[in-house]
Design goal:
The complex is a heterodimer of chains A (124) and B (192). With 124 residues, chain A is mainly alpha-helical. Chain A is built from five helices and four strands; from the N terminus they run H-E-E-H-E-H-H-E-H. Helices cover 40% and strands 9% of the residues of chain A. Chain A is elongated. The chains are: A mainly alpha (124), B alpha/beta (192). The structure holds guanosine-5'-triphosphate and magnesium ion.
């Protein structure tokens, strides 16, 4: 058995069968530009796409009329995170979506924000 | 920080991450589900293998991946802050995603089960090394021997200021308390 067919047959009980989810990204597995974080909030800019968009990218743009995070979008589209990261990276690169609040610059969210979260949780 | 009145239709204003970690079957999915609406989320595991994963000129790679389901939940507060919970599979081979999850995160909850505390050691090591604030939440499983807190602490061998709390994450209030103690801890160990 050659390597490829062995890989195709490989199954994983915990994770399911091997798939090739990157078909929708035309094989691109790495996002253009900076990698977007799972909780980066993105919003459509309203700019018209100059290139043809993949159907998934059109759906992403529609969903991004309301600010959404990468994690929200991946869950909504039921596509793996990495795939959505690539698709959104391209939209971001082409100015079709923008980051709503600047990405958390620090390794840690600031204290005042954490205090706020604490009060929110207590009030939950 | 002052916020203008918030309309949920505007989407989250600030989004923060919390990781829910721990060994196999410790209650990660249960915890995410009891404090938030759990939603499907998949990520992919790259099967590293010599000879694949090499970039060609177009950035197109021949990667073999398998999808992995994660626990994912969101709590949106009335002020527009959204807390995103991510539960990662317990097996060590799924750790490839932890670095990304940890970046900028509030911190992590390490769930542990008194019947097999060792299953959570790896997660504890990981967050200690990465200096991610974390709390250990010990699930009191039925049939598990009731240990004293001191015994559990010394078995876990965590830093004295790492909170170790007993919980039953099937209960929302208990799961909520775990999150509260994590945020309190993150505030305490965090910078200014
Ligand atoms: N007694 C008790 N049982 C619990 C508690 N939390 C979870 N369980 C039970 O433990 C079992 C496993 O819980 P899960 O939430 O699926 O655990 P998990 O960490 O997601 O498991 P994996 O994803 O398979 O690693 C379920 O049957 C839960 O009902 C708890 O706090 N107390
Ligand atoms: Mg689970």
């Amino acid at each position: 058995m050659d390597d490829d067919s062995r890989r195709e047959q490989w199954l994983d009980e915990a994770a399911g069968p091997i798939v090739r989810p990157y078909a929708v990204t035309r094989g691109r597995t790495r996002p253009r530009g900076e990698k977007l974080d799972l909780v980066t909030i993105l919003v459509a800019t309203g700019r018209i796409a100059s290139d043809r968009l993949a159907p998934e990218q059109r759906r992403l743009l529609t969903l991004c009329r309301r600010p959404c995070t990468l994690a929200d979008l991946a869950s909504e589209l039921d596509l793996p995170l990495g795939v959505v990261q690539v698709l959104l990276g391209e939209l971001h690169h082409n100015g079709l979506v923008e980051v709503r609040v600047p990405d958390l610059p620090a390794e840690q969210p600031d204290r005042r924000l954490l205090m706020r979260v604490l009060n929110d949780l207590r009030a939950l | 920080m002052t916020y203008a009145p918030y309309d949920p239709a505007d989407g989250p204003r600030v989004a923060l991450k919390i990781l829910i970690a721990g060994g196999f079957g410790v209650g990660k999915t249960t915890m995410v589900g009891s404090v938030s609406e759990i939603r499907p989320l998949r990520t992919e595991e790259v099967l590293t293998d010599a000879g694949i994963g090499v970039d060609d000129i177009n950035g197109v790679e021949a990667k073999n991946t398998t999808t992995v389901a994660m626990d994912f939940g969101r709590i949106t507060f009335p002020d527009g802050i959204a807390l995103y919970l991510f539960g990662t599979p317990g097996q060590q081979r799924f750790w490839f995603m932890w670095d990304e999850l940890c970046y900028g995160a509030v911190g992590a909850v390490v769930l542990a089960d008194t019947r097999r505390l060792t299953a959570s050691f790896a997660a504890i090591d990981y967050f200690e090394r990465r200096k991610t604030p974390f709390v250990v939440a010990v699930n009191c499983f039925d049939g598990g021997r009731r240990y004293g807190m001191d015994d559990i602490r010394s078995a876990l061998d965590v830093d004295p200021d790492v909170p170790v709390i007993l919980c039953d994450v099937r209960q929302r209030e208990s799961a909520k308390k775990v999150l509260i103690s994590l945020v309190e801890h993150a505030i305490k160990v965090g910078g200014p």
